[in-house]
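Consider this pair:
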Amino acid sequence: MTALTLADVTKLLRDFPTAAELFARASYSDLIRATLPDRHPGDTQAEALFRQVQAVYHGLSAPPVTIRGPKRTYTLWRRLAVGDVADVHFATAVTDPDTAAEEYFVLKVARVPGGHRLLATERRALLHLRAAAGDTSYRDYLPALAESFQADDGFLKRVNVFRHELGLYTLAEVHERHPALDGRHLAWVFNRLLTVLGFCHRHHWLHGAVLPCHVLLHAASHGLQLVGWGQSVEPGQCLDTIVTRYRDWYPPEVHKRQPAGPATDLFLAARCLVYLAGGDPLTNRLPESVPAPLRRFLGTCLLEGARMRPADAWALHEEFAELLRQLYGPPQFHPLTMT
């Protein structure tokens, strides 16, 4: 997310006058940083907005929720997403007691008893994969787990803490801003997906939920991060859980309780491309604006039978690179604007 401007803060305060409404859309830290008088010397508008933000904050009927972990205490400022078994929150924590310096984090907190197991699975998968990635660029494709701990709030729940990274957008947010990406953007997104899936499959992990809510894009740098590892399994295992609102996105083997494999992840990745292209991911229909060779290529990943689909992300990556050279020539950077 880009830094807020004074105009942004003015509009937020006008449209969302209550604390609950305001801090659900922007964190207190971001609002204060945007209006800090030291950043706008002599600007009376900034001073007025700064005082107004403080007044709304101090008028909260209840203090913000805090969660104490082994390493630090987190203040939850706003809920970013609600999943089937866990909530995702934007949070801050003091990381240097001497200077009171804060860092930003994303907390995934189990909301129901079954969430504990899924968040434990996510922790195990990410520890394995990030260790395998070492200092290579593959680490950039995976969320940075800052810590993971158990909490007791009437039932045993796990809290997974991730470092917050600016500039990341879910595919759902990208689709809302750009309802139909052109083939050149689809190309780099699928390239990145094949890269992270190839790496994870090589290290014996299936993601199991490659969906718009779990694929984050960094528009400015054409980066990609695959999050939401709670449904992950080893190849050959059945998926125990699916994301309810995307139930109809999953391939037949999942609904039939058959073992999942790399082709399962590649099926879901291809459906994400259909979605970004402005097509219908439930019927696999791509718009005519997508070049026919690209439509056919994605179609091979979307066949009904798992054994009929590609199952090697790295081999598919090489074939895709050759197809892109034929369609578009040498790789070029195409800006994707999200602001």
